[in-house]
Amino acid sequence: SSSMEPPKIHRLEESVVNRIAAGEVIQRPVSAVKEVIENSLDASSTSINVIIKDGGLKLIQVSDDGHGIRYEDLSILCERHTTSKLSVYEDLQSIKSMGFRGEALASMTYVAHVTVTTITAGQLHGYRVSYRDGVMENEPKACAAVKGTQIQIENLFYNMMARRKTLHNSSDDYAKIVDLICRFAVHHINVSFSCRKHGAARADVHTVSTSSRIDAIKSIYGASVSRDLMEVTASENDSSSLIFNMHGYISNSNYIAKKMTMVLFINDRLVECSALKRAIEVVYTATLPKAAKPFVYMSIILPPEHVDVNVHPTKREVSLLNQEKIVETIQTTVDSKLRCSNSTRAFVTQQ
Ligand code: ADP
Ligand code: MG
Fold first, then answer.
1. Which residues surround ligand 1 with Cβ inside 6 Å?
2. Which atom of ligand 1 is nearest to the CA of 104?
3. What is the interface pTM, i.e. ipTM, of the complex?
4. What's the pLDDT score for residue 351?
5. How far is the CA of 42 from the centre of ligand 1 (A)?
6. Sorting pLDDT into bands at 50, 70 and 90, what band is 145?
7. Measured between alpha carbons, how far apart are the two ends of the chain, in Å?
8. Rounded to whole angstroms, what are the CA distances from 333 to 4, 226, 232, 247, 294?
9. Which is nearest to 45 in space by CA: 27, 33, 63, 59?
10. Would you say residue 321 has pLDDT above 50?
11. What atom in ligand 1 is closest to the CA of residue 101?
12. Which CATH architecture has domain 14-206?
């Protein structure tokens, strides 16, 4: 009978497919900010300035002083799978840039209105052009521009009612964006970052290029964090080839916080590794119960072919070869550092 008839399968329209995919890459305003800042870093910028209106839903504006975008490339800039970073699949093994799949700008044009202003070295003027659904809305217009690129993302999720509603009810998106920029700034100490709300006179993050990581941490998180940090390093080799190399700063027994801060970069990518985070937290709880919520900055370098960067649509999690071994070695290093500092302190107070 008719109730047994299977529903007919049809092909989705490309615009529907693209919008669904875009909703996965750009989950919240902060994911858009991350993608755009990574593009600025990939373009060798030394200064990145962010302006946010209405938690990023009204406007995300990121201005950099990087190499800019060629006029000839503007027509395909926001199409899906257009990139200057990857050519053949094998490039993924050695890719140094944070982007690689030409998905971010395209995604934004499917869920927002994107305007790009850019100028390349040696040009007298720049170009401005707006995009929707992957394509230019008009020919690029000549305009005055300073070095680099400015991306404006307006009315994010204007065509995704449910997403817009749930985000409207949460007021913490601006805080998430500030937190993200702080993390980038701790790692990229040669780049100056700023972030402010649209119309605000004061920036909520503002860093200047420095050569000292501790100074960077001080200007971002304050002296109350930077004065209570200890340097940690660890590395491991396997018959002369590198397995991993870690350098970082971890808080000592004087640092008391409500929650753990873990700023982790693997091969210069801002990522999360819940296994490592947990392993470190366990050590603090056991060794420094009063300071059990640490501040941790770590930069881990691995052979690029040991990192799979393509496991998550937002590139937030990466998977590592030898992950268990690496986590264990770092855990042991942190443990002995804490025990050592604890006994020194006990020794000092005894005197
Ligand atoms: P991907 O970063 O994966 O290549 P995107 O969609 O993020 O993909 O960007 C597409 C291309 O646009 C990049 O490969 C790059 O050539 C160019 N681009 C994007 N943002 C900038 C920028 N701020 N400065 C210079 N070039 C940029
Ligand atoms: Mg990118």
1. 35, 39-40, 43, 64, 66-69, 77, 83-85, 99-106, 149
2. 6
3. 0.99
4. 44
5. 8
6. very high
7. 91
8. 63, 20, 8, 11, 15
9. 63
10. yes
11. 3
12. 2-Layer Sandwich (3.30)
Give the ligand at the shortest distance from the Cα of 84.
Answer: 1
Q: Are 320 and 301 in contact (CB under 8 A)?
A: no
* Domain 228-350 of CATH type 3.40.50.970: no
pTM assigned to the model:
0.93
Q: How far is CA 145 from CA 45, 47, 75, in A?
A: 15, 15, 19
Q: Where are the domains of the chain?
A: 14-206, 228-350
Contact status, residue 65 vs residue 47, Cβ threshold 8 Å:
yes
Work out the mean pLDDT of the chain and round it to a whole number: 93
For ligand 1, atom 2, the nearest C-alpha belongs to: 99
* Token digits of residue 255: 């640092």
User: Which tokens go with 277?
Assistant: 């985070």
Nearest CA, atom 7, ligand 1: 104
Q: How far apart are CA 347 and CA 351, in angstroms?
A: 7
